[in-house]
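Format notes (please read before filing issues)

Several people have asked whether sequences and structure tokens are stored in separate files. They are not. Every record keeps both together, in the order shown below: the sequence lines, then the token lines. Line labels are part of the format and must not be stripped during preprocessing.
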Amino acid sequence: MLKVLRPGLNQLLTPVGRALARTPVTPNMLTVIGTIGMTAGALSLFPTGHLFAGTLVCTGFVVTDMLDGTLARIQGSTGVFGAFLDSTLDRVSDAAVFAGITIWLATGGHDRLLAAVALFCLVAGGLVSYAKARAEGVGLSCDVGIAERAERLLIGLVAIGLSGLGVPYVLSVGLWILAVLSAFTFGQRVYAVRKAAAARDADVTTARGSAAT
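Then the structure lines:
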């Protein structure tokens, strides 16, 4: 859903990427820095109830993480390992955000039900990403889903940040919406892979039949 915003974001980040291209900084360095910063911020601030501060820190490092792709494009250094590292460490960052808020809800937040919902969001988000990666691993396309990583992270951080500012019920509403969207997106991807696999199997069967005649 947020893909339509990417050209605009790329335009905003390109000047920063060009400046970084004149330094020894590499895209992989930005990926690692963004992950470490976001993980440290989420796991140190969210469990202690500093929700708004934690959201600001995480958002700042999200921008850092976004710069890796911009810098790689400018330097012409895009590669398989860079894509692997970025995708893998994204899972670490996401897990830190939802683990941090789960810990707070189960302790200082005194809401075990919502803690379970946050934990479900963590697990469901991992399943959504795994479904796509596994499909691509067997040669099938799975680029579908109403709530991809950017949407899930946006909903989560906005809900957490507004809750930290004292907005009532926003965290509950945000996490429940995120849980539903994540489950639905996982279902979308499983269904898409099922259709693609059936179509490919049918093509193979037809090809074998043609070869036999």
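For reference, the curators noted about this record: The CA atoms of residues 98 and 122 lie 6 Å apart. The domain at 2-212 is CATH 1.20.120.1760 (Four Helix Bundle (Hemerythrin (Met), subunit A)).
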